[in-house]
Amino acid sequence: MDPITPATARTWLATALAEARTGLAEGGIPIGAALYGADGILLGRGHNRRVQDGDPSAHAETAAFRAAGRQRSYRGTTMVTTLSPCWYCSGLVRQFGISRVVIGEAVTFHGGHDWLAEHGVEITVLDDPQCVALMREFTERHPQLWNEDIGDAAT
Fold first, then answer.
1. Residues with catalytic function
2. Contacts with 81 (C-beta within 8 Å, 6 or more apart), sequence order
3. What is the pTM for the complete model shown?
């Protein structure tokens, strides 16, 4: 698998960021994701729908994964997400052998991407200012909803 170029990573992140903005416009949590094939073709995209669907498992990475449909193998695929993946979504990446994760930002939330890297998943953290601003604004306006999303509802 060839390393991802910065230009490709940013182009793919734009897809995930558009999904995050859609989720926010729907009244949900602004996290978006996209799954790209080894050939660079978009397989699936989605956004966090926990609020909209009342489904605690409806994370952005899960939505993109489901939208991609069944694949014979996920080796060589790239999950692009606006925010460092939580443990649940990190588990999905490991379970199905997704080879690479491109992360818009890990400032607001530092999920399981270090663990993924320790297990051979190629990680690219872009520290994208748009992703950071989107999540910071959301977490400041909706701290209880954000804490619920990351499994820290007691806070």
1. 61
2. 16, 31, 32, 33, 60, 61, 89, 101, 102, 103, 104
3. 0.94
SS3 132: helix
Q: Are 110 and 84 in contact (CB under 8 A)?
A: yes
Check if the beta carbon of residue 64 is closer than 8 Å to that of residue 31.
no
Q: How far apart are CA 33 and CA 110, in angstroms?
A: 16
Q: Is the pLDDT of residue 137 over 90?
A: yes
Beta bridge partners of 81: 33, 103
- pLDDT in the model for residue 155: 46
Structure confidence by residue, pLDDT tens digits, 21-43: 999 999 999 999 999 999 999 99
Determine the pLDDT at residue 79: 98
Identify any residues that bridge with 122 across adjacent strands, giving them in sequence order. 100
Gap between the Cα atoms of 44 and 56, Å rounded = 20
List CB contacts of 7: < 8 A, sequence separation 6 or more. Answer: none
C-alpha to C-alpha distance for 82 and 131, rounded to whole angstroms: 6
Contact of 112 with 133, CB cutoff 8 Å: no
For helices 6-25 and 129-141, give the axis angle rounded to 10 degrees: 20
